[in-house]
Amino acid sequence: MKRFFTEYLIDWKNRTHRKPLIVRGARQVGKTYTIEEFGNKYFDEVIIVNFEEIPEVKQFFQTNDVEQIVRNLEIYFGKKIPLSKTLLFLDEIQICPEAIITLRYFYEKIPSLHVIAAGSLLDHTLNDLQYSMPVGRVEFAYMYPLCFYEFLNAINEKLLVEFLKNYRIQQKIPQPIHNKLIELVRLYFFIGGMPEAVKVYAETKKLINTERIHESIIKSLEFDFAKYGTRSQQIIMTKLLKYIPKTAGQKFKYVNFDNSIRSDAIRKSLDLLRMSRIIHIIHNTKTTEIPLEYGVVEKVFKTLFLDIGLSNHILKLRLTDLQNMSLSNEGSLAEQFIGQELLCLPPYFIESNIYYWMREKRNSAAEIDYVIQSGNQIIPIEVKAGKTGTLKSLQIYVTEKKLKKAIRFNADLPSSVQVDTSIKINKRMEKVNFQLVSLPFYFVQEFDRFL
Question: Which CATH superfamily is domain 5-142 in?
């Protein structure tokens, strides 16, 4: 499967001032497959040290003498390692924290050797690392499930991807093509972006096989809880795993989750799920200017699940007769989809953060689904499951923040209109004037270009 992340790896390989790369991402999002495929295609030699499969090689990394490490690896694998033509891939590196420390010395002593490290539960190891982190001697990159474009490529709809990438917002999209794309977005809602699930569907076109993969992934995530949580935390995390898909798009309230559990215990379990990248925390931000992080309200947040397909599987949705399936949570699914797509956007060397805005005041409550930074602009994003919906919260936000542009994602054809109206805010009539760029769901990857 073609991953856009590979383009980033190619750029990393060719850079003059390259550092050892640590790839971070949840279990089974395709880190190992993508890195190995990249290595086999762009290097003469690939040395794969999987610390889970060959734990005995951990002994090599008890020293910081990286020249000796390379010699030991040559003997162990039975082949010479031409430094400038070799990729050394340290997989499941969280099992050998000492190897993380050696990355500094690979950078300083053997800069010509290309080194990539990855691991499914790596964030826990980095958080608890007892040794000095090689700050400034390594770089990070982040992987997520397949985005919608990658999904289309995988199911052999490459011409649609080409069409979307070359589309100009003034063009008219033929209704049959629009309908097909909306149907494929809905298909993605249920299959999701986990590579194995997409691969099985692409090969068999049987959704029952996709369900089996979803179930096995969920179970593997649950089994992992024992590796980084206490027994009581494992119980809470299992409950959260089943609860969070029900609340996509809603403010997380501890009391609504389980009022018999202390909020501090829930918070710690949420943090463990976040470090495992099973969930993403979407914080409320109050700022009127960039950076958005400056105005974050730590105690007010929403949760976003790792993958929309897994989320629906947890909700016990059976993948049959999708065309006629009527859902009570269409709005939540649309918001999960848009959030997941926003997280997948490059650049991959920056950990994606998205935010939302809400105001909880009697008679004047308002909420914006997502708030992002595009260049040096703040862009509010509204998500509507269908083709229509009210824009009162959006109008309040752009007026209060004095913004000129906003985006709405929905199921309709693209359009751009100048909104010119008046609304009542805090008992006063206020003038509202901004450009509303309305885009169908399948254009998330292009919205920045359109702006």
Answer: P-loop containing nucleotide triphosphate hydrolases (3.40.50.300)
Take residue 410 and report the two structure tokens written for it: 């929905």
Q: What is the pLDDT of residue 234?
A: 96
CA distance readout (Å), 16 to 8, 112, 115, 118: 14, 10, 14, 22
Of 178, 310, 342, give the one whose Cα is nearest residue 245.
Answer: 310
Site of tokens 């039975």: 78
Domain regions of the chain by residue span? 5-142, 355-450
DSSP-derived pairing of the beta strands 279-285 and 296-305: antiparallel
- Of residues 349 and 125, more confidence is placed in 349
Q: Does residue 151 have a pLDDT over 90? A: yes
Can you give the length of the chain in residues? Answer: 451
Structure tokens at 206: 């049987």
Q: CA-CA distance, 280 to 275, in Å (whole number)?
A: 9
Do residues 368 and 175 make contact, with C-beta atoms less than 8 angstroms apart? no
- In this structure, the number of other CB atoms found within 10 A of the CB of residue 158 comes to 13
- Please calculate the CA angle 234-235-241 and round it to the nearest 5 degrees: 85
Residue type for position 271: D
What does the alpha-carbon distance between residue 374 and residue 389 come to, in Å, rounded to a whole number?
24
Could you say which DSSP state residue 247 is in? G
Mean pLDDT over 394-406 rounds to: 90
- The DSSP-derived string for 106-143 is HHHH-TTSEEEEEETTHHHHHHH--SPP-TTT-EEEE-
Of the candidates 305, 274, 269, the one whose C-alpha atom is nearest the C-alpha of residue 193 is 305
Query: What is the three-class DSSP state of 84?
Result: helix
Q: Is there a cis peptide before residue 291, judged by omega within 30 degrees of 0?
A: yes
Q: Which position has the token pair 């990070």?
A: 140
Classify residue 3 by its DSSP letter: -
Distance from C-alpha of 368 to C-alpha of 379, rounded to nearest angstrom: 10
Q: Tokens 């179930």 sit at which residue? A: 215
Q: What is the pTM of this model?
A: 0.93
Q: Are 32 and 3 in contact (CB under 8 A)?
A: no
Helix (H, G, I), strand (E, B) or coil at 304: strand
28: left (phi over 0), alpha (psi -120 to 50) or beta: left
Which tokens go with 244?
Answer: 């969070």
**CA gap 257, 241 in Å, rounded:** 11
Amino acid at 312: N
